[in-house]
Description:
The complex is a heterodimer.
Chain A: E1 2-8, H1 10-14, H2 18-23, H3 28-34, E2 43-49, H4 53-64, E3 73-79, H5 80-85, E4 89-92, E5 106-110, H6 114-134, E6 140-141, H7 143-155
Antiparallel strand pairs in A: 1-2, 1-3, 2-5, 3-6, 4-5
Chain B: H1 2-9, H2 19-41, H3 44-47, H4 51-66, H5 73-90, H6 95-98, H7 125-139, H8 150-161, H9 163-176, H10 181-191, H11 202-210, H12 216-229, H13 232-240, H14 247-268
Helix pairs in contact in B: 2-4, 2-5, 7-8, 7-9, 8-9, 10-12, 12-14, 13-14
Amino acid sequence: MKLLLRKIEKPKWEFHKSEFEEDGVITPYPVTNDLKTCESNTLSVWEFDEGDEKLFKSLLVTLATTRNKLQHLDYAIIRKDNILQSEISITDEEGNSPLKKFNSYHRNLSNLKIDDLKIISKEILEYVCSKSNEDPICLRISAPKLRIMMKEMIENGDFDISELPTGFDLT
Amino acid sequence: MSEKFSVLRGVRKLNNKHDDTSKFEELNRNNYYTSYSNNIERNEVNSDKRSIYSTYNESIREKYDNLDTFKSLESYSIIFNKILNLHSENSSQSKYLINDSNKTLIKDSSVDSDIDLPSSNVLNAIEQQNYFVLESMIKNDNFEVGYESNSLRFFDTLYKDNRDSSLKVINKLFIASFSSVKVVVGVLHILSSYSYEKVDPNGATIALAASLHQSDLVKEALLLVFEKWSNEDALRLLLDNVKFENVWLEKYRLNLINDIEELLNETTS
Lengths: 171, 269
């Protein structure tokens, strides 16, 4: 199964999930604060195959490097089939991470309408609720963990340390 | 606020154009004193110690909307200082800017304080100015994990200019604003960009105090600071002094301890 990785800020969803769990209500706060589309009405995601743990970890690091500070990364996983069934279009677009090797895994959820955000939010909330009950910390990679993962990828030759943004001090 | 920061951060290229300052001052003077006089007439100064500062801010904001060339941090600092000086020289009401509850934080040489503090604990005029600007910026800023904020960029210019002074300012701001979740979170976001050594000893003190805060948002931001430090000191503080009631924050704290230990082991091996 194809999965889509999306960067989120977990507290924005975590602190507002009870309404969804109890009544299926999606409150606007996480949607308006954490699903900010760009002007072209797209949302950025990264595609990988279920079970491909190596690529998944690499994409987490890739996603972290699209920011300018090495801090923890919160993420959610969306099922691609569910998005396609909702007639949300997914387009290939090269990512802008400094880790160029992985930019080809980047996708856009495109031509989004306001109703589409509700569908995407529902996917994220379902993921957050199910995973949080299993393991409350599973949607977050800490900064020290990211450092370790980056060092491993550098040792494996996945990318060079010089490709990292200046705010990423691995020492 | 972003407009304000674009003025602040911009632009050392107009560094020597003090014409900006006098032009601004001239334009500003009438407007400022008119509004300030009105304030006094309405007895608002006594009732609101911040009204004068608000007047400064509004005047400044209004005027640099009209001045295309007023674009440098240096100019802003000079202008702010001049306004403060003008105010001190010409107004017997100046003590209201720094008195009341803030007198333990901010002291002006022209005012007799009821409390004698060591001079190192008192903000000088420039630090007062930086204090108010930083406070204002944090209140209007948007802090997003993984991204630099405007407040951080501003603080970093202060830090690079004078480390001890900048830490004194942020320390005072943290203490004075402890009841404001927004400001406390902002201070922690700023600290989370500096290593333990770079903000020692103020950083650890602020972190420990923040761990006693009621807000989960503050505790969440506090963990960002420990993540950045990721050293033995952070580990000791996290293990011995910090504990959260919120289940997932507490689990994340424990997870973070493991991750920091793993990182430290890897570094030493």
